[in-house]
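Following the same procedure, sequence and fold were stored together, as reproduced here.

>
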Amino acid sequence: MLARCARLPGVITPCYDPNDMKLSTLRALVAAVEEGSLRGAARRMGLTQPALTKMIRELERELGTTLLARSTTGVMATAQGKVLVDSAVAADRELANAVNQIRQLSGDMTGDLTIGAVPLAVMLLIPETLRTFGREFPGIRLRVSEELYIAQLTRLRKGEVDVAIGPLPEGLPQGEFSAEPLMPISMVVVVRRGHALERARSLTELGDAKWVFTGTTAGAGYAKLMFEQNGLATPPVGALVNSTLGLISIIASGDFVGLLPLQIALHPMTAQYLTMVPTREGPLRATLASMARADAVLKPVVRHFISHLHRAAHQVVGGHAPLVGSVQADRLQIVQPLRRQV
């Protein structure tokens, strides 16, 4: 309902009561922004285009602002619209999570679970976890997205993923997240086969090389952390990627240096293009962990999923599951200097 409220003496402006805001109207606005057109949004919502347009125009009138910028090519959110869309998406997600949690607490294990995992976890832990978890809880729909550099925990913080699996970041905020170590991992230096730097034996020799950094900014990433831990200046950033295939492709086709988890570097599909550089400093040691928001750990489905992750990690560490598939013996010999020198 549209109200009238005085903000300044003698000035009457539209005022909106948030209690009157309908979820269906907010979803219509979100659909319009995500689809980029009113026609696409109407189709997605199962409405006629005039009906959807009316809903959004009424919302704009009641809020006293323009939420969508309209053009001949479609629609996009205004600054005010983006604020409302972001809040609506978060509220809708939280509502769905609440409904799922209520059902699960009542013994009805159905709903969705979204996982963000680094490539190593996707390769080593996710297949076995999905097999055992899916067998025990067939009513849970699992979505897995690959995250190359997970230290920012941005998607976890926003609630876009329920569980993140990756190297445990330093300085993890106390109380905000719940983290459980799963297994130790090693990040090794790699270059393309035939690269002059494959004969390097220290990080100092690699300090001027062009490095491929992982993450969203050049100020973060495992390469930076590796050099800092050894008291060295951060090497120059040759490229910045957030894709496993992109990382491997760039290193394999140019004069770049990068870091890969040991098991991925040893994998036959990778090892035919890349070789490891056994630096005396050894690999970057880290701990692969599961991370969830502190409030999310209370969800039964999250607790059960993490329990299955631990089982999968135990199999890998205990040698009951294959690490890299079929790996040639000469590939494995490269690892021995790395292990002895740490």
Summary: The two ends are 68 Å apart (CA to CA). The first helix runs from residue 23 to 35. The CA atoms of residues 296 and 302 lie 7 Å apart. Residues 185-286+326-341 form a domain with the D-Maltodextrin-Binding Protein; domain 2 fold (CATH 3.40.190.10).
